[in-house]
## 1
Amino acid sequence: MSYFEKEALKQLIEASSWPKFSGTGEYDHIDGLFIDVPRLLDHWITARLNTALNGHAHIWYTEMKESQSRKIWQWWRCKIIQKYSNGTWIWQKIMSFENDKYSVDKDPYELCLRKSTRLKGIDPQMNIQMRNHKLLTQIPGELEHAVKCRCNQS
């Protein structure tokens, strides 16, 4: 085992903060899909799935693993997307994004963060400019105008 592999393995073992995924949260499968995998070997990541998945997702993984035991991380990643980012889930996120409106009693920062997370879940490839544009179109009235005017000046 090379020095790099030993160091990477040490970091992997110490990484108790890996995202947990239950299959029931609004976005909890999204966090696990974007693990910085280029530096880790496939068998290290797939070995970690057994502890990173819990609840419904763990049951699903256990059943899939019985018939598909020697698959690489990319294969598992695609299966998780197929299972949990299906059309119904995406439609629910679109409706949640559109129906979640600003009001005086809501924290605007939390609202924007929640809406941005929904957009990332709907389309992970969407760039930050498009995400900001979609957020701005959700803001009614003078605030939208003020922000657009300031954006054009810079």
## 2
Amino acid sequence: MTLKTTQNFFLVIIFLASASSLKAQKYGDVKAKYSDKPLLFMENRGQIVDRNGGSHPEVLFSAAGSGTRIWLKATGIDYQFNKKSYRFTGSQADINEIPLSAASQKFSVALQNSNPNPVVITENQSDYIENYYLPHCPQGILGVKSYNKIVFKAVYPKIDWVVYSNGAFMEYDFIVHPGGGSFAN
């Protein structure tokens, strides 16, 4: 190898190394940007279906973020926690986030003996909307609204259930009005 060939070889190596780290940095910036987004509750207008295409009208709102999916129903919440493992090879495949393995856990929290038809009030509507074009709705479900707070009025006598986002996290409260809270049966 001549000196000029050696210099060119090292220049190419330095260029590739810097381009690779630049790619990783940009990807990391994008991932960080979207992991900080607030949790939003999307109304269900028919876009929520299971693997077999079956609709789920009992799901009133859904939310997703940081490997978690949440489905709000009048009588409780379904949670699904997803974890994916990736391998780093420095190849183009890393950009596409091809998982090496994936694990999922789902559980439900039911409001026992609650009102199955509470009045639902949405609050703090976000500017963010989604449009869905799915096999079961090829014409599209357009302008699906998102909210930061959902109130389920009178899930129990004189008790409201308030579900809201606190940044990227979901929280909920039970508001007990005067005369509420007696569960002696």
## 3
Amino acid sequence: RAAMEQQLRAPMTVRLRPEPAADRGEDGIVAVNLTRPFDLTYGRFGVDSQRRVNWADALSQMGLSGQELRSDVTHFIAGPCEEEQVSACLIVFDGSYAVLRDSDCLAEGLRAAEALARGGRAAAATAAALQLHVQE
């Protein structure tokens, strides 16, 4: 390397290229605009139809319909991830919160929110798993 550096002459053109190894540094931030909720029953055709499919799939995994939910669910505009994917699920309960960010966060967040809304032992276990404190 030292020999190569000695051969360098100015002026020169240096071309930089990304390292071939996987880089996830830019994926560390998820911005959820809590001032921009949206309603899944209305909206643009393409992106919103995929959001409706994701929501229906999460409900189906639980064997529920939207009318059977005990938890309040609000959908928000988020980024910088893909528009058709859920990037994070924020669960707020009794003055505490948890953020889920895995690939199945919508279904997992819905399960957790429903357990918390239904109360009892399941709520206490869910709150403990999410590191929330539940007063019985």
